[in-house]
Write a structure and sequence with these properties.
single chain, 151 residues, 9 strands, 11% helix, 50% strand, globular
Length: 151
């Protein structure tokens, strides 16, 4: 039996994202949380607002009443209020989101519940606005020529 081999090594599966901040099961937080791009896992209760440029997870024992601004939100517990999610809102089987949601995309697993109003951020509208801003800033395009680029 050879100890070394020229055959390609098996790749390891990606590890689950590390939890950087944990709000424990029996904890009540009132006020604001700003956590940047670090991940936040909520197992207790929050009354207030969460501002994150990363991932926020509301565990099955977690409850948030207030506003959540995040890049990615995973809900297996309960959220009541307004959520503004830049990328994806995931509501898993035991999850409940009640209120107003503005999302990039939405995934609701069987058993998950979304009660309230949900609007999708439309990337096309943003692109059209950027294109309109470029044309306005550089002037009209004549004879099929490309507009001058800002330097």
């Amino acid at each position: 039996m050879a100890m070394f081999s020229n055959s390609p090594q098996k790749t390891r599966p990606n590890a689950a994202q590390a939890v950087h901040t944990l709000l424990g099961k029996d904890t009540l937080w009132k006020g604001e949380i700003h956590c940047g791009a670090q991940s936040l896992r909520i197992e207790g209760r929050i009354e207030g607002s969460i501002h994150s440029t990363g991932e926020v997870t509301v565990a099955p024992t977690g409850f948030v009443e207030g506003t959540i601004h995040a890049k990615h939100l995973i809900v297996t517990g309960k959220v009541k209020g307004m959520v503004k999610i830049a990328e994806c809102l995931e509501i898993h089987g035991t999850g409940l989101v009640e209120g107003e949601a503005e999302v990039g995309s939405l995934v609701v697993d069987e058993g998950g519940t979304l009660e309230g109003r949900c609007t999708r951020r439309d990337g096309k509208k943003v692109a059209d606005l950027k294109a309109a801003d470029t044309k306005a800033a550089t002037g009209p395009v004549k004879n099929g020529a490309e507009p001058a680029k800002k330097v």
